[in-house]
Design brief:
Bound molecules: 6-O-phosphono-beta-D-glucopyranose
CATH architecture: Distorted Sandwich
Number of strands: 22
Radius of gyration: 18 Å
Strand content: 35-45%
Number of domains: 1
CATH class: Mainly Beta
Helix content: under 10%
């Protein structure tokens, strides 16, 4: 890998779990780890805080396999492929090593940029920019349609957040919004009443949701703020007990430790990029005291 990305005290290239390479970003006591496999932010920790992102102790850490936790990049489709069931769930991005192409530091930011390697094959390019500041982690996924045809696009920055206990947290900011409940099967739209709490497997797409969400976690005395730009869908997911047991890369007893609040464009908010068009999806994560 390109060692010239290194910036003393700010950016270094390291070997992590499973021998995979990652880029460590530092800024004033805050740190983030970005694995090349999947352009995957595995770790984010502001100064004097507990880690904000969660990952499974049973995750694979191998080239060409997705990592369970952190922030998987679901691209250029979210969930099942719309027409070809032989293609992998959540797209191609999380299955390959991305190329780190730039790093930068300023008095207030540390930044790294990675590029999806197989753009020519699919006639779409993607870059992921990760920016660490004193009090935030910002991740932007930029897609460009490099074909001469319109490009359907669904996508998610599928963040897994660490929580003290799923039974005692709540997700705010989606009150009054319509959502697609995919359990036990996809059903007609329902409307969210009050904050979201968790008592069972939860897998929902909140649509037309451009605003910031907050995860209230009294057990950790903190709120995780999940801001967004150019995102109209928010996916909220916890597998609970039975689905956890069915997933080989997820521990049977891990479901209380995490919640996914995903910054997305999917379902009725699917995009269609014209030839040459660029679209940038951003999530911005911050932690504040409760
Ligand atoms: C969520 C989906 O975004 O991702 C869930 O809404 C899915 O249905 C979950 O189970 C995890 O997907 P995967 O492919 O990483 O197991």
């Amino acid at each position: 890998m390109n060692q010239s990305l290194s910036i003393p005290g700010r950016v270094s290239v390291k070997t992590g779990k499973g021998g995979l390479s990652y880029i460590e970003l530092r800024y004033n006591g805050a740190e983030a780890h970005v694995y090349l496999q999947g352009a995957h932010v595995l770790h984010y920790q502001p100064a004097e805080q507990a880690p904000v992102l969660w990952h499974s102790q049973k995750s694979n850490f191998e080239t060409n396999r997705p990592i369970r936790g952190g922030i998987p990049v679901c691209w250029p489709w979210f969930g099942a492929h719309p027409s070809d069931t032989t293609l992998p769930a959540h797209g191609l991005a999380r299955l390959v090593e991305w190329e780190p192409i730039a790093s930068d530091s300023t008095p207030i930011t540390t930044t790294v940029t990675l590029r999806y390697p197989n753009s020519e094959k699919i006639r779409a390019s993607a870059e992921l920019i990760v920016i660490l500041t004193d009090d935030s982690l910002t991740v932007t996924l930029t897609t460009t349609n490099i074909s001469t045809e319109p490009m359907p696009l669904t996508e998610a920055l599928h963040a897994y957040f660490a929580v003290s206990d799923i039974h005692n947290i709540s997700v705010h900011g989606l009150e009054g919004q319509p959502y697609i409940d995919t359990l036990p099967a996809v059903r007609p739209l329902r409307t969210q009443t009050g904050p979201i709490t968790f008592t069972k497997e939860t897998d929902r797409i909140y649509i037309d949701t451009p605003r910031e969400c907050a995860i209230h976690d009294p057990g950790m005395n903190r709120r995780i703020l999940v801001g967004k730009e150019n995102s109209l869908s928010t996916v909220v997911w916890n597998p609970w007990i039975a689905k956890a047991a069915r997933m080989p890369d997820y521990g049977d007893n891990e479901y209380p430790e995490m919640v996914c609040v995903e910054t997305a464009n999917c379902g009725p908010n699917a995009l269609r990029l014209t030839p040459g068009q660029t679209h940038a999806l951003t999530t911005r994560i911050r932690v504040v005291a409760l």
